[in-house]
Design a protein that fits this description.
With 685 residues, the chain is an alpha/beta fold. Among the domains are: 179 residues, P-loop containing nucleotide triphosphate hydrolases (Rossmann fold); 71 residues, Helicase, Ruva Protein, domain 3; 190 residues, Peptidase M41 (Methane Monooxygenase Hydroxylase, Chain G, domain 1), CATH 1.20.58.760; 28 residues. The radius of gyration is 42 Å and the shape is elongated.
């Protein structure tokens, strides 16, 4: 949000945010004032510096006056304090040279000495002494020297410990217990449901929340209770936070936003205090919305050992539970929370009466991706040739954040290429960059590595294109991207939500196609198939232990409960779910599946060796081939001739585009008889 403002309360108005220049000016002014006072005190101490002077007691001064060693006196009578400050000069008998001194006597002593001098000038202590008297009462100097340092200390303590420096609900050293939630007023929230695309079902589920905040009497008159809490669950980047802001924008109500990690501090009890402060402020501004992002940071299961929380986190969670129970249905405080780890949350959070409703926001389907793409394309200058439906089909598995990043990357590519608008080619390059990484043409490979990589990727492409249940190949390249030396990019023809056994077995074949091609063509193997082997092993293990795709092991789940320790369960030594013999059988079945898939892959590679060679040589020559090129090579066509035709057609298209631009410029010129030249210059009669 660009116009976010913090509010202390409706009556106190706006307070500057931490980054506001108005707040930043306050600290330098305070420092300047304190510095000026310090300089003043140092200056006064400097001018009052009496280094090199002797300090005499009142009795010593009296003795020197009686011995007529004092030559001059400069007296400052401070009647408000009952003292007389004395500075003067005396001559030490032993040294014979004059020395300065300072002393302090009582006002009563001075009155006695002066009275003696008035009665007997020749025999008094002041006989032969030149003295001057200053009776000015320097209250300001005394105040600066004695009171200002105390005020300075108090001001520093106030600034460090009691100054509220964190906005309307927190800040300062002593405000640990204040909530750090940011409050956005209804004019600050500009996001509405129209800005949230690809989550139609989720928007329908939260529409009741919006209606309740707008018109609560409609629900309460029949005794209906709106859910106190709504938990939004989904992968990262799917729009959970955006949907929460849209709810606040549609409801036109105040919106409190805080992260789960903002509750917990190293001091015990701080998190619970912040929770109480947050809900107290929410009740004061009801009806409103409280949004807790990443609630799993504070809402993990209690009573856990390894992976669980400490006492402070548990106290904070207990405070949240108690406060949610204390919110009445008529108060109008709705708690929204977001997490991508709902399985680690405490069961008490999920029961009815707290987070009553759970809204799942999953990865968008092809229609959702098209809607999201249209929203983000409005923010850039896009070419008319772009078809959002086509790009949506080319981006399976992309989240809303991925699509936003894709459009931004495409705009950056268009700027680098000096284009007038974002084109389809820019979007496709951005798609490959987001999914597979940036091309690394600077990484130079020798001919042997290029040949090995080309045949490895050719093996993947050949097997994938010749199997029926796998996704079609979109592009094959031996240009390094990310950490890979080459890539075979797939493109699903539809969104899939299940996996059949036949498809899983063919996926194993595709993953092993690169290793099979290396061994069949080059007669040796390399480490380039490490990632393929890892993925193939994972698929085979899940086929055996989770999906029941092994006749020998049957329909039994053998998967280890590996997630429980991380999810916050107590780490206790538990007996294995199956015997050692069963574990050995599982390993044997995994190896059998992979071996059978590899045998089939080797046979497919051997039977289509000519086609494999054509694909590999095409990759060595052109470095990148698309699906149409691959189909042509599988059919035995001439890729060189196709590339020449494509280049000639592209050249004709460029020439036609330039011709259309020239015609447009010509049509914009003024015709005969029209006014031309400078403004106001008459044309021909």
């Amino acid at each position: 949000m660009n116009n976010e403002r913090d509010r202390n309360s409706p009556n106190t108005g706006h307070r500057p945010k931490p980054g506001d220049p108005r707040r930043q000016r306050g600290v330098p002014v305070f420092v300047m004032v304190m510095g000026a006072l310090l300089l003043l005190l140092v200056g006064m101490a400097f001018f009052n510096n009496t280094s090199g002077q002797d300090e005499l007691k009142a009795s010593e001064l009296k003795e020197k006056l009686a011995a007529h060693e004092v030559k001059s006196l400069d007296l400052k009578i401070r009647g408000d304090r009952g003292v007389v400050e004395v500075q003067g000069e005396y001559v030490a008998p032993a040294e014979g040279e004059a020395k300065t001194f300072k002393s302090q006597i009582s006002t009563a002593d001075w009155e006695q000495w002066s009275a003696q001098a008035d009665e007997d000038k020749e025999n008094s202590l002041l006989t032969g002494v030149a003295y001057s008297i200053d009776e000015h009462k320097d209250n300001l100097a005394w105040f600066l020297m004695n009171i200002v340092p105390l005020l300075l200390i108090v001001a520093v303590i106030w600034f460090l410990f009691f100054r509220r420096a964190g906005g309307p609900m927190g800040g300062g050293v002593m405000s640990f217990g204040k909530s750090r939630a940011k409050m956005f007023s209804k004019e600050d929230i500009t996001v509405t449901f129209s800005d949230v695309a690809g989550a139609d079902e989720a928007k329908e589920e939260v529409a009741e929340i919006v209606e309740f905040l707008r018109n609560p009497q409609r629900f309460t008159r029949l005794g209906a209770k709106i859910p106190k809490g709504v938990l939004m669950i989904g992968p990262p980047g799917c729009g959970k936070t955006l949907l929460a802001k849209a709810i606040a924008g549609e409801a036109d109500r105040p919106f409190y936003s805080i992260s789960g990690s903002d509750f917990v501090e190293m001091f015990v009890g701080v998190g619970a205090s912040r929770v109480r402060d947050l809900f107290r402020n929410a009740r004061d501004h009801a009806p409103c919305i409280v949004f807790i992002d990443e609630i799993d940071a504070v809402g993990r299961r209690r009573g856990a050992g390894v992976g669980g929380g400490h006492d402070e986190r548990e106290q904070t969670l207990n405070a949240i539970l108690v406060e949610m129970d204390g919110i009445g249905s008529s108060e109008g405080v709705i708690i929204l929370a977001a997490t991508n780890r709902a399985d680690v949350l405490d069961n008490a959070l999920m029961r009815p009466g707290r987070f009553d409703r759970q809204v799942v926001i999953d990865l968008p389907d092809v229609k959702g991706r098209e809607d999201i793409l249209r929203v983000h394309l409005k923010n850039v200058k896009a070419a008319h040739e772009i078809d959002p439906a086509e790009i949506a089909k080319l981006t399976p598995g992309f989240s809303g954040a991925d699509i936003m990043n894709l459009v931004n990357e495409a705009a950056l590519i268009a700027v680098v290429r000096n284009l007038d608008a974002v084109t389809r080619e820019c979007l496709l390059e951005a798609r490959d960059r987001v999914r597979f990484g940036r091309q690394k043409r600077s990484r130079v490979m020798d001919e042997e590595e290029r040949r090995l990589t080309a045949y490895h990727e050719a093996g993947h492409a050949l097997v994938q294109e010749m199997t029926e249940n796998t996704d079609r190949v979109h592009k094959v390249t031996i240009i390094p991207r990310g950490q890979a030396l080459g890539a075979t990019m797939s493109l699903p023809d539809k969104d899939r939500h299940s996996l059949s056994q036949k498809r899983a077995e063919e996926m194993l074949m595709v993953l092993l196609g690169g290793r099979a091609a290396e061994e069949d063509v080059l007669g040796e193997v390399s480490a380039g198939a490490a990632s393929d082997i890892q993925h193939a092993t994972e698929i085979a293990r899940r086929m055996i232990t989770e999906w029941g795709m092994s006749p020998k092991m049957g329909l039994v789940n053998y998967a280890a409960d590996e997630e429980q320790e991380f999810y916050g369960q107590t780490m206790i030594a538990k007996p294995a779910k199956h015997s050692d013999e069963t574990a050995q059988n599982i390993d044997g079945e995994i190896k059998r599946l992979i071996d059978e898939a590899y045998v089939k892959t080797r046979k497919m590679i051997s039977d289509n060796r000519d086609t494999l060679d054509r694909i590999g040589e095409a990759l060595l020559k052109y470095e990148t081939i698309d699906h149409d090129d691959l189909v042509l090579l599988l059919d035995g066509g001439d890729l060189d001739e196709k590339r020449r035709k494509d280049e000639s057609e592209a050249a004709r298209e460029r020439a036609a585009r330039k011709h259309r631009e020239l015609d447009q410029l010509t049509s914009d010129r003024p015709a005969s008889g029209e006014v031309s030249g400078f403004a106001g210059q008459p044309g021909p009669a």
